[in-house]
Design a protein that fits this description.
Radius of gyration: 13 Å
Strand content: over 45%
Helix content: under 10%
Shape: elongated
Distance between the termini: 11 Å
Structural class: mainly beta
Strand order of the largest sheet: 1-4-5-6
Largest sheet: 4 strands, antiparallel
Length: 72
Amino acid sequence: MSGSSAAAYTLSSSGANMFTYTGENPFFVAESGTVTISSNANNKISGSYEAFRTGNGGLTRLYGTFTDVPVN
């Protein structure tokens, strides 16, 4: 991420705001979307994400929340 302050960050397929899911098949690299950091307290961030990619069916959208993720 290009920052850790409370804000919305635009995702892309390369650069500082790249979003990659490496779980079970298929491998997912977002082409667009947003990560929203709602709080940064004690070097831990919380918020939500929604990521999109085009494809031939299959996985085209990931979304969810995160709570108290340590900032390195």
